[in-house]
Design brief:
about 290 residues, mainly beta, Porin, 16-stranded antiparallel beta barrel, 1 helix, 16 strands, about 5% helix, Raffinose porin, signal
Length: about 290
Amino acid sequence: MQRFIKLSAVTAAIIAAPAFAAVDVSGNIELDNTYYADAQDQLTQTGRVELNFAGKKEVGSAYVAAKGTIEAGKAGADAVADMWVEGGTSAFAVRMGRFEATDMFVPGKDTLVVGGVGYNGNTLRGRRGASEPHVMVTGKLGAAASFELGLIETNTVGTDTNFGVRPVVAFGAGPATIKLAAEKLQGAADTGFALTAGLPLGGAAINVNYSQMGDANGYGVNATIGAFGVGAAAGEDAAGNKGNYVFAAYTVPFFVPEASMTFAVSSGKNAAAGSAKDTGLRVRVNYSF
Protein backbone atom coordinates (compact mmCIF):
# COMPACT_ATOMS: atom_id res chain seq x y z
CA MET A 1 0.00 0.00 0.00
CA GLN A 2 2.86 2.40 0.78
CA ARG A 3 4.22 1.86 -2.74
CA PHE A 4 0.77 2.66 -4.15
CA ILE A 5 0.52 5.90 -2.13
CA LYS A 6 4.01 7.02 -3.16
CA LEU A 7 3.39 6.27 -6.83
CA SER A 8 0.05 8.09 -6.76
CA ALA A 9 1.62 11.13 -5.11
CA VAL A 10 4.45 11.28 -7.64
CA THR A 11 2.06 10.84 -10.55
CA ALA A 12 -0.24 13.55 -9.23
CA ALA A 13 2.70 15.95 -8.91
CA ILE A 14 3.79 15.24 -12.49
CA ILE A 15 0.30 15.71 -13.88
CA ALA A 16 0.04 19.06 -12.08
CA ALA A 17 2.93 20.36 -14.19
CA PRO A 18 1.97 22.38 -17.31
CA ALA A 19 3.68 19.94 -19.68
CA PHE A 20 1.29 17.18 -18.61
CA ALA A 21 -1.90 19.24 -18.48
CA ALA A 22 -3.51 17.06 -21.20
CA VAL A 23 -3.36 13.89 -19.09
CA ASP A 24 -6.81 12.61 -18.08
CA VAL A 25 -7.16 11.39 -14.51
CA SER A 26 -10.11 9.41 -13.17
CA GLY A 27 -10.81 6.96 -10.40
CA ASN A 28 -13.38 5.00 -8.50
CA ILE A 29 -13.91 2.95 -5.37
CA GLU A 30 -15.74 -0.36 -5.53
CA LEU A 31 -16.84 -2.28 -2.44
CA ASP A 32 -18.43 -5.75 -2.62
CA ASN A 33 -20.40 -7.27 0.25
CA THR A 34 -20.98 -10.91 -0.72
CA TYR A 35 -22.62 -13.89 0.92
CA TYR A 36 -21.79 -17.34 -0.44
CA ALA A 37 -24.15 -20.13 0.53
CA ASP A 38 -24.03 -23.90 -0.07
CA ALA A 39 -20.37 -24.82 -0.66
CA GLN A 40 -18.81 -21.89 1.25
CA ASP A 41 -21.42 -20.48 3.66
CA GLN A 42 -19.56 -17.26 4.41
CA LEU A 43 -19.92 -13.48 4.23
CA THR A 44 -17.07 -11.50 2.68
CA GLN A 45 -16.28 -7.85 2.05
CA THR A 46 -13.82 -7.11 -0.73
CA GLY A 47 -13.05 -4.11 -2.89
CA ARG A 48 -10.50 -1.88 -4.50
CA VAL A 49 -9.50 1.66 -5.33
CA GLU A 50 -8.78 2.30 -9.01
CA LEU A 51 -6.84 5.24 -10.46
CA ASN A 52 -6.57 5.77 -14.22
CA PHE A 53 -4.10 7.98 -16.07
CA ALA A 54 -4.45 8.42 -19.83
CA GLY A 55 -2.96 10.68 -22.47
CA LYS A 56 -2.91 11.09 -26.24
CA LYS A 57 -0.83 13.23 -28.60
CA GLU A 58 -1.71 13.70 -32.28
CA VAL A 59 0.50 15.01 -35.04
CA GLY A 60 -1.27 15.10 -38.39
CA SER A 61 -2.84 11.70 -39.01
CA ALA A 62 -0.56 9.92 -36.51
CA TYR A 63 -0.91 9.63 -32.75
CA VAL A 64 0.62 8.11 -29.64
CA ALA A 65 -1.60 7.18 -26.68
CA ALA A 66 -0.86 5.65 -23.30
CA LYS A 67 -2.78 4.46 -20.26
CA GLY A 68 -1.91 3.33 -16.75
CA THR A 69 -4.36 1.87 -14.24
CA ILE A 70 -3.37 1.29 -10.62
CA GLU A 71 -5.51 -0.80 -8.29
CA ALA A 72 -5.22 -1.05 -4.52
CA GLY A 73 -7.20 -3.84 -2.87
CA LYS A 74 -9.03 -3.69 0.44
CA ALA A 75 -6.62 -6.31 1.78
CA GLY A 76 -3.72 -3.88 1.29
CA ALA A 77 -2.24 -5.28 -1.93
CA ASP A 78 -1.69 -3.01 -4.90
CA ALA A 79 -1.06 -3.79 -8.55
CA VAL A 80 -0.90 -2.35 -12.06
CA ALA A 81 -3.99 -3.49 -13.98
CA ASP A 82 -3.13 -1.71 -17.24
CA MET A 83 0.08 -0.20 -18.57
CA TRP A 84 0.35 0.25 -22.30
CA VAL A 85 1.57 2.52 -25.09
CA GLU A 86 -0.09 2.63 -28.52
CA GLY A 87 0.96 4.32 -31.72
CA GLY A 88 -0.49 4.53 -35.21
CA THR A 89 -3.18 6.18 -37.30
CA SER A 90 -6.96 5.85 -37.59
CA ALA A 91 -6.40 2.90 -39.96
CA PHE A 92 -3.56 1.01 -38.25
CA ALA A 93 -2.09 0.88 -34.75
CA VAL A 94 0.28 -1.11 -32.54
CA ARG A 95 -0.18 -1.50 -28.77
CA MET A 96 2.28 -3.02 -26.34
CA GLY A 97 2.40 -3.52 -22.58
CA ARG A 98 -0.13 -4.89 -20.11
CA PHE A 99 -3.75 -4.80 -21.28
CA GLU A 100 -6.73 -6.93 -22.26
CA ALA A 101 -7.65 -7.49 -25.91
CA THR A 102 -11.18 -8.11 -27.24
CA ASP A 103 -13.45 -10.06 -24.91
CA MET A 104 -14.70 -13.17 -26.75
CA PHE A 105 -17.14 -14.23 -24.03
CA VAL A 106 -18.92 -10.92 -23.46
CA PRO A 107 -20.41 -11.18 -19.97
CA GLY A 108 -23.07 -8.47 -19.89
CA LYS A 109 -23.92 -7.23 -16.40
CA ASP A 110 -21.74 -9.77 -14.57
CA THR A 111 -21.58 -8.09 -11.15
CA LEU A 112 -21.42 -11.58 -9.60
CA VAL A 113 -20.74 -14.86 -11.40
CA VAL A 114 -20.58 -18.06 -9.36
CA GLY A 115 -19.39 -20.92 -11.56
CA GLY A 116 -17.60 -21.17 -14.88
CA VAL A 117 -17.38 -22.87 -18.25
CA GLY A 118 -14.59 -25.05 -19.63
CA TYR A 119 -13.27 -22.64 -22.28
CA ASN A 120 -14.29 -19.07 -23.05
CA GLY A 121 -11.99 -17.95 -25.87
CA ASN A 122 -10.00 -15.59 -23.63
CA THR A 123 -6.95 -17.67 -22.72
CA LEU A 124 -4.62 -15.34 -24.66
CA ARG A 125 -6.61 -12.14 -24.11
CA GLY A 126 -3.90 -10.54 -21.95
CA ARG A 127 -3.01 -9.34 -18.43
CA ARG A 128 -1.22 -12.63 -17.88
CA GLY A 129 1.84 -11.87 -15.78
CA ALA A 130 4.47 -9.40 -14.68
CA SER A 131 7.01 -9.99 -17.45
CA GLU A 132 5.26 -11.74 -20.33
CA PRO A 133 5.46 -9.65 -23.53
CA HIS A 134 2.18 -8.70 -25.22
CA VAL A 135 1.84 -6.84 -28.54
CA MET A 136 -1.37 -6.21 -30.47
CA VAL A 137 -1.80 -4.94 -34.03
CA THR A 138 -5.17 -3.47 -35.02
CA GLY A 139 -6.53 -2.15 -38.29
CA LYS A 140 -9.55 -1.61 -40.50
CA LEU A 141 -10.71 -3.99 -43.23
CA GLY A 142 -13.33 -1.62 -44.60
CA ALA A 143 -16.17 0.56 -43.40
CA ALA A 144 -17.79 -2.23 -41.35
CA ALA A 145 -14.93 -4.61 -40.53
CA SER A 146 -11.76 -4.53 -38.45
CA PHE A 147 -9.07 -6.93 -37.28
CA GLU A 148 -6.91 -7.47 -34.23
CA LEU A 149 -3.80 -9.64 -34.02
CA GLY A 150 -2.44 -10.39 -30.56
CA LEU A 151 1.06 -11.80 -30.02
CA ILE A 152 1.88 -12.94 -26.50
CA GLU A 153 4.45 -15.08 -24.72
CA THR A 154 3.29 -17.35 -21.93
CA ASN A 155 4.46 -20.36 -19.95
CA THR A 156 1.01 -21.98 -19.82
CA VAL A 157 2.21 -25.23 -21.42
CA GLY A 158 4.81 -26.96 -19.26
CA THR A 159 7.55 -24.78 -17.81
CA ASP A 160 8.97 -23.39 -21.06
CA THR A 161 8.09 -20.06 -22.59
CA ASN A 162 5.55 -20.46 -25.38
CA PHE A 163 4.46 -18.15 -28.15
CA GLY A 164 0.73 -17.46 -28.54
CA VAL A 165 -1.19 -15.96 -31.46
CA ARG A 166 -4.75 -14.57 -31.21
CA PRO A 167 -6.39 -13.11 -34.34
CA VAL A 168 -9.82 -11.47 -34.04
CA VAL A 169 -12.04 -10.21 -36.87
CA ALA A 170 -15.05 -8.00 -36.13
CA PHE A 171 -17.99 -7.11 -38.37
CA GLY A 172 -20.49 -4.37 -37.54
CA ALA A 173 -23.77 -3.24 -39.02
CA GLY A 174 -25.26 -0.42 -36.98
CA PRO A 175 -25.50 -1.51 -33.34
CA ALA A 176 -25.12 -5.21 -34.23
CA THR A 177 -21.66 -6.83 -34.13
CA ILE A 178 -20.17 -10.26 -34.80
CA LYS A 179 -16.64 -11.17 -33.71
CA LEU A 180 -14.65 -14.28 -34.62
CA ALA A 181 -11.39 -15.30 -32.95
CA ALA A 182 -8.82 -18.08 -32.85
CA GLU A 183 -6.21 -18.86 -30.17
CA LYS A 184 -3.12 -20.94 -30.87
CA LEU A 185 -0.42 -21.56 -28.31
CA GLN A 186 2.89 -23.15 -29.26
CA GLY A 187 3.05 -26.61 -27.68
CA ALA A 188 -0.71 -26.89 -27.21
CA ALA A 189 -2.49 -29.74 -28.96
CA ASP A 190 -5.60 -27.79 -29.92
CA THR A 191 -6.54 -24.44 -31.41
CA GLY A 192 -9.33 -22.51 -29.76
CA PHE A 193 -12.14 -20.85 -31.68
CA ALA A 194 -14.71 -18.36 -30.41
CA LEU A 195 -17.69 -16.40 -31.68
CA THR A 196 -19.54 -13.61 -29.92
CA ALA A 197 -22.45 -11.62 -31.29
CA GLY A 198 -24.10 -8.50 -29.90
CA LEU A 199 -27.45 -7.25 -31.11
CA PRO A 200 -30.21 -4.94 -29.92
CA LEU A 201 -33.65 -6.41 -29.34
CA GLY A 202 -36.29 -3.90 -28.36
CA GLY A 203 -34.75 -2.01 -25.48
CA ALA A 204 -32.30 -4.80 -24.60
CA ALA A 205 -28.66 -5.41 -25.54
CA ILE A 206 -28.20 -9.15 -26.20
CA ASN A 207 -24.88 -11.01 -26.20
CA VAL A 208 -24.50 -14.57 -27.53
CA ASN A 209 -21.21 -16.43 -26.94
CA TYR A 210 -19.74 -19.73 -28.12
CA SER A 211 -16.19 -21.09 -27.81
CA GLN A 212 -14.47 -24.43 -28.43
CA MET A 213 -10.96 -25.77 -27.87
CA GLY A 214 -10.64 -29.50 -28.40
CA ASP A 215 -13.17 -31.16 -26.11
CA ALA A 216 -13.52 -28.05 -23.92
CA ASN A 217 -16.25 -25.56 -24.69
CA GLY A 218 -18.46 -22.77 -23.40
CA TYR A 219 -21.69 -21.19 -24.57
CA GLY A 220 -23.98 -18.59 -23.10
CA VAL A 221 -26.41 -15.74 -23.58
CA ASN A 222 -27.10 -12.59 -21.58
CA ALA A 223 -29.19 -9.46 -21.81
CA THR A 224 -28.91 -5.96 -20.37
CA ILE A 225 -32.07 -3.87 -20.19
CA GLY A 226 -31.32 -0.48 -18.71
CA ALA A 227 -30.22 -1.01 -15.10
CA PHE A 228 -31.13 -4.73 -15.14
CA GLY A 229 -29.04 -7.62 -16.43
CA VAL A 230 -29.51 -11.37 -16.62
CA GLY A 231 -27.49 -14.20 -18.16
CA ALA A 232 -26.64 -17.89 -18.27
CA ALA A 233 -23.75 -20.00 -19.53
CA ALA A 234 -22.62 -23.63 -19.55
CA GLY A 235 -19.78 -25.77 -20.88
CA GLU A 236 -17.28 -28.47 -20.06
CA ASP A 237 -13.53 -28.89 -19.79
CA ALA A 238 -11.32 -31.31 -21.73
CA ALA A 239 -11.91 -34.03 -19.12
CA GLY A 240 -15.68 -33.85 -19.53
CA ASN A 241 -16.40 -32.00 -16.27
CA LYS A 242 -19.45 -29.79 -16.73
CA GLY A 243 -19.87 -26.25 -15.45
CA ASN A 244 -22.60 -23.64 -15.58
CA TYR A 245 -23.91 -20.43 -14.05
CA VAL A 246 -26.86 -18.06 -14.04
CA PHE A 247 -26.81 -14.48 -12.80
CA ALA A 248 -28.94 -11.38 -12.45
CA ALA A 249 -28.13 -7.83 -11.32
CA TYR A 250 -29.94 -4.53 -10.85
CA THR A 251 -28.37 -1.10 -10.26
CA VAL A 252 -29.93 1.85 -8.43
CA PRO A 253 -28.56 5.34 -7.63
CA PHE A 254 -26.81 5.72 -4.28
CA PHE A 255 -27.71 9.24 -3.03
CA VAL A 256 -25.63 11.13 -5.65
CA PRO A 257 -25.20 10.72 -9.45
CA GLU A 258 -21.57 9.60 -9.09
CA ALA A 259 -22.47 6.66 -6.84
CA SER A 260 -24.48 3.50 -7.41
CA MET A 261 -25.56 0.36 -5.60
CA THR A 262 -25.96 -2.95 -7.46
CA PHE A 263 -27.84 -5.96 -6.12
CA ALA A 264 -26.73 -9.25 -7.68
CA VAL A 265 -27.39 -12.97 -7.38
CA SER A 266 -25.68 -15.93 -9.06
CA SER A 267 -25.63 -19.71 -8.84
CA GLY A 268 -23.53 -22.36 -10.56
CA LYS A 269 -20.45 -24.59 -10.50
CA ASN A 270 -17.05 -24.53 -12.19
CA ALA A 271 -16.19 -26.94 -14.97
CA ALA A 272 -13.49 -28.70 -12.95
CA ALA A 273 -13.31 -32.02 -11.16
CA GLY A 274 -14.60 -31.82 -7.61
CA SER A 275 -16.29 -28.43 -7.97
CA ALA A 276 -19.51 -28.08 -6.00
CA LYS A 277 -22.49 -25.91 -6.84
CA ASP A 278 -22.69 -22.65 -4.92
CA THR A 279 -24.98 -19.62 -4.73
CA GLY A 280 -23.97 -16.04 -4.01
CA LEU A 281 -25.68 -12.76 -3.14
CA ARG A 282 -23.82 -9.45 -3.57
CA VAL A 283 -24.36 -5.78 -2.84
CA ARG A 284 -21.82 -3.66 -4.71
CA VAL A 285 -21.28 0.03 -3.95
CA ASN A 286 -19.37 2.10 -6.51
CA TYR A 287 -18.32 5.74 -6.31
CA SER A 288 -16.57 7.47 -9.20
CA PHE A 289 -14.47 10.60 -8.67
